[in-house]
Amino acid sequence: MSKKYKVRIKGIGSYVPDRSLTNKDLHEMYGTNELWPEQYLGIKERRWVVNELASDLGYKAGLKAVENSGLNIKDIDLMIVATSSPDKISPSTACIIADKLNIDCPCFDVNSVCTGFLYGLNIASPLIEAQAYKNILLIATETYSKITDINSRDCVYFGDGAGAVVLTSSDTGWITTEVYSDGKGKDGFMTPIGSTFIMDGKAVFEAGTSKLPLAINKVLSDSGLVVDDIDYMVPHQPGIKMLKVISEKVGLPFEKVVTVMDKYANIAAASIPIALDDAIKSDKIKQGQTILLASVGSGWTWGAGIIKFEN
């Protein structure tokens, strides 16, 4: 049984690199299929870094989230960074970002690939309700262009970017999450050390369309809600066809699904906070609405969450 934690998003921010690459650009540069990414995935373009690192993107998104919260950077007493494309194996990307932000607080990385932001929420929410920490900065940052094989068809899937939220206690808002892992998908998507990622797209599709509906129905049931109570679903951005199958299986009209993969592609752990920031800043998501989150990542990791939105 998932618990509703009295936690709210006090601040949110995102950052994507300036460099934009359309499907036509990739076709001309690397000979990829120009039409397939949009037709099958819903991706028209993506942002790729030039010289920036995951820590640079995370720093900029984190700074925006803190500024949006109205807090001072010194008010942050814990920082969690979700990334599967870190600057280095050691030290943690969280420590590198902490130095850039000039904050002195506990910090650590979480690597659950595309489910990383949900795992971060799952860790942070009970800590805030227990008053172990007052203000937690959760950053998700990815630079998949650095681990992409440009000679592979899969190079069209991913983009770079970062999203961040400041979490604090709430009187009326709440957050609940259900996260899972089974290890059965360790070969479906993997990145050997010093190499580019290898992806079995069919296996990812099958995992997402079978596991996520179950997770979504479970978090709804545990929260005493039905799918009609959901105002919007903000998923990670694995592809338009996968999201359409998932929304159909749970009975959620697709117009309630927030997508940004057309301009940013799949940014793994950063997809959800970037899409959430986009929807909030465009006034699509409003105070008091009930927001569903969902994601699946390699391993397999997967999960769903619900936010009773209050900022």
Give a summary of the structure in a few sentences.
With 311 residues, this protein is an alpha/beta fold. The chain contains 9 helices and 13 strands.
Description:
The chain is of the alpha/beta class and 311 residues long. The protein has one domain: Thiolase/Chalcone synthase (Peroxisomal Thiolase, Chain A, domain 1), CATH 3.40.47. The chain is built from nine helices and 13 strands. It has helices spanning 23-30, 36-41, 54-69, 93-101, 116-129, 201-222, 240-250, 261-264, 271-281, and strands at residues 7-15, 20-22, 45-47, 78-82, 107-110, 136-143, 160-169, 174-185, 189-190, 198-199, 232-235, 290-297, 299-308. It is globular and about 55 Å long.
What features would you highlight for this structure?
311 residues, alpha/beta, Peroxisomal Thiolase, Chain A, domain 1, 5-stranded mixed sheet, 4-stranded mixed sheet, 13 strands
